[in-house]
Amino acid sequence: MPGFDFDTVTWSPVHPRAFARAIKPALVFITVATSIAAVLIGWGAVAVFILMLLWSLIGTRQRVAHLGWAEGDEVVMMKSGWIWQQTTLARVNKIQAVAMYESPFDRRARMASVRVDTAGAGEFSHRVDVPYLDRDIARALAARLSASAANTAFRW
């Protein structure tokens, strides 16, 4: 975006308990995979368990640590990725839809996600989809972005 200075962006982190919320699906997968490995390879499943657990702990910790979002007068941004880092910027005047969603696990942890759909976004493009936000922060962010999108006159 011409004229936009990325160095002045103040990034906001996700919820402090995001790691605990993010690791749970990995732990379920590890349990199932280890059970199957135990049947197939016996005690070798202990090695499978240890390797998968370490990789999941490190990967999830880094993935959550590198998540962030920022909001400005004209843009909303998201950064993600540990090994392959991505930063997505969406202009507020290009926003078509804003959704706040919660899974049952998110509701229990008082978290939510905010997803922004923009004009011209491709099917496989990196989108602004910020997970693991505090529910109140997500609700306020979605309301502000929705209000901005509603006040935008689109010209086609």
Describe this structure in words.
It is a single chain. This protein is an alpha+beta fold and 156 residues long. The chain folds into two domains: 18-63; 69-150, PH-domain like (Roll), CATH 2.30.29. Helix content is 43%, strand content 24%. It is built from four helices and six strands; from the N terminus they run ααββββαββα. The protein has helices spanning 18-41, 45-65, 104-109, 135-150; strands at 68-71, 75-80, 86-91, 95-101, 111-118, 128-134. The strands form two sheets. Strands 1-2-3 form a three-stranded antiparallel beta sheet. Strands 4-5-6 form a three-stranded antiparallel beta sheet. Helix 1 (18-41) runs antiparallel to helix 2 (45-65). The protein is elongated, with a radius of gyration of 19 Å. The mean pLDDT is 88.
Write a brief structural summary.
The protein is of the alpha+beta class.
